[in-house]
Each structure stands twice: as C-alpha cells, then as structure tokens.
Amino acid sequence: MLFAVTLSLLVVTGASLFPPGHSPSPQLAEDPEVDMNATELITSKGFPCENHYVTTEDGFILNMQRIPHGRGDNSSGTVRPAVMLQHGLLGSATNYLDNLANESLAFILADAGADVWLGNVRGNTYSRAHKTLKPSDEKFWAWSFDEMAKYDLPAMIDYIVQTTGQPQVHYVGHSQGTLIGFAGFSQNKTLGQLVKTFIALAPVATVGHIKSPIRLLAPFSKELGAAIELFGHGEFLPSMELTTWFADGVCTDIPLICANVLFVLGGYDFKALNMSRVPVYIAHNPAGTSVRNVMHFAQGVNTDKFMMFDFGSAAANMEHYGQSTPPLYHPERMEVPVVLFSGDRDFLADPTDVAWLRSQLKTTVADHVIPHWEHLDFIWAEDAPTLCYKEIQRLVFN
C-alpha cells in the first residue's frame, strides 16, 4: 500500500525517477539481510541479542531487542550506560540495524560499551501481540501515537530501568520516536525523571509545513482511512510478501527506483545514501502501524497543531477527553534535557516545524543542524557516524 501510494505520487507530482546525472543503477547481488529479522541482523554481525517482551497497561505485548554488550566483550560486573533507540512512523528496531556494523547506531553504541535496547511500538512487525486481542480484531488497531506516548513509552523505559538496575536511560528517538517522547515526557513527569538525555533525531511535533507529496493525501485522510479499514481491519501495512518481493526484485534490479520511493517521503540526499543497502531498507520497511495513527499524522498536517487524536465531533471528543476539542500537547512543560539533530533538507521534520518546536522547549542543551541531510539520513546515511553518531556516543559516555 505505501509503495503503491508513493509511486503514484511520483507520477502525479512529476518527480523524476532519475535525478540529473543519475541513470538506472546496475543490478545488485541479492543481499542475505533482506530475509533476516532484527535478531538475525544483530547476531549475524557477531553481537549478542536478547529478546524481551514488555506488557503495557492496556494489554499490548511489545518485543524489544537488547544488545547487552559489543562483539567479544562479555565482561561481567561492568556498568554500561543504558540506551533506548526508538524508531519512527512505519519503522521498527531494524532502522538502527540495517547498515554495516560500523555504520549502524545500535552496533556503534554497543561496541563502544553501551547496553543497547531497541524499542518496537504496538502494531509493528515485532509487536503484534495482546493479552486478549488478535491483529484480526478491529479493536486491536484502535490507537494512534497518543497511546504509544501514554502506554508504550513508560512500559519500555520502566522495564529497562528495572532490568538493568540503572536509575536513568538515554533515550534516542527518530521522527515518531521523538514525537512520542515530546508527548510522553511532557505529560508524565515521573517518566521523564527516568531519562538522563533525550536525543531527538529529525524531531517531530507539528507537521503543518511538510513538503513531502504525502501531504496531498492529508485533506482526504478520513476517507482514505475508511477505505483501508474496509480492507485491513484498521491495519496500515502491505504484506511482507510484497515488501520482500519488492526488495528482492525491483530494488535488486533497479535500486535507484527504490531510492526514490524513500526520498519522495523524506527528502533527497543521494550523496549520503549507500545504494547497495536499499534492498535491505525496503525489505524491512514499512513495518506497520494503524490506520488511526496515519490519520493522526494527517490531522497534524491539516491543523498544524500538536494535539491528541480528533474523534470527529464535539460529542465524541467530549466522551473521550471531557472537552469538545482534542487537548494540546505542551512540549514546553517537559523537564528532560534535550539534544536536537535536524536536517535542512528534511521533507517531514521540516525546518519551519522544527523552529516552532525549538522555540517551545525550555530544556535544550544542544542543537545541531546538518546542512544537506533529509529525514532518513539520521538512520541510514553513510556519513552518519561522523556527522551525528560520534556526538551521540560522546553524550552517552560523558
């Protein structure tokens, strides 16, 4: 579904599949990582991996991957800083694992001596379980990022603190991972006290100025949602067979086309993209979410406000919130120290929206703007280790 929509947008908006100076790339050899899950991506590179299952207050069972130490470093008694890496919209833990060991943030931090935890929010590939509901039940998908901030985030952070015995964790979020941080930490001060540093990659709160062609769908979000719900019980996800076929077939044969599928959503930065890894990116993304969550993002495009989900009428909102309109989130109330990393070619975390967020925050301790970066460079760019991850490593071990 996402690929069909995105490719259609390329045609509708007149975007070229091949930018000036680029021609179709030669066929790539099939990469075995296309067929690996998060655990296999970790262990295939020589790192240890533990799978932990965390139950939220409202019954969702979230699968977290843990890399307790680096390659060959299993010394006991070592106190390692705990770091949680949280993916963005339609992503998963693999976002921090899809590059080589010396290029992926999770591996870099683990080898440096961190205890790395990879979060997976409700509804993605790794968190499709519930105490009483099944993914085939429409109720299973009745949530948006509101519930991620209210239930998923505290469940995962509390679990890390309890398991490691560490009083605080470093929280690194990308895109939606930052949004649920700004929402959750500003509302739940007790939760915020468990976070030593909030490192926000491609930070998102308001999305009224996004440049991605996907904004063209925002005015029709409720109609689009109804259509998808009709066919998918509220789930927003193409089949895994489709993404694997796309990765093994189209992306291996003509990786530049798949690169454009990624760029049209987040912004263009060809010089930072390792084209040989594109089939792996496509194989693991999108990892799934709910229709309501997609509608919630579209609502943000339409309203240019950082607020909870609008149930469509004053009466419905009154029933859910005790007021006729959805409550606003207040990032200015957050007390967690924040470090911002943004890109000036980001189509989703648009510089104008980031400027608004920056003006609201009272606890920013550093603000980094990377000139040529787009939205996905923060997790996949070849120059990420030098332009971003080196500083994150310094913050974690400071």
What do you see in this structure?
The protein has 15 helices and eleven strands. Strands 1, 2, 3, 4, 5, 6, 7, 10 and 11 form a nine-stranded mixed β-sheet that branches. Strands 8-9 form a two-stranded antiparallel ribbon. It has 398 residues and is α/β, with parallel strands linked by helices. The protein starts with a helix and ends with a helix. It is globular and about 60 Å long. β3, α3 and β4 (115-119) form a beta-alpha-beta unit. Mean pLDDT is 86; it is low at 1-25 and 239-247.
The H-and-E topology, N to C, reads as HHEEEHEEHEHHEHEHHHEHHEHEHH
**How far apart are the termini?**
43 Å
Shape summary: globular
Rg (CA only): 20 Å
Number of DSSP strands? 11
- Counting copies of identical and different chains, the oligomeric state is single chain
Helical content band: 25-40%
Number of helices: 15
The chain-level structural class is: alpha/beta
The main β sheet shows up as: 9 strands, mixed
Bin the strand percentage: 5-15%
Mean pLDDT over the full residue set: 86
Low-confidence stretches: 1-25, 239-247
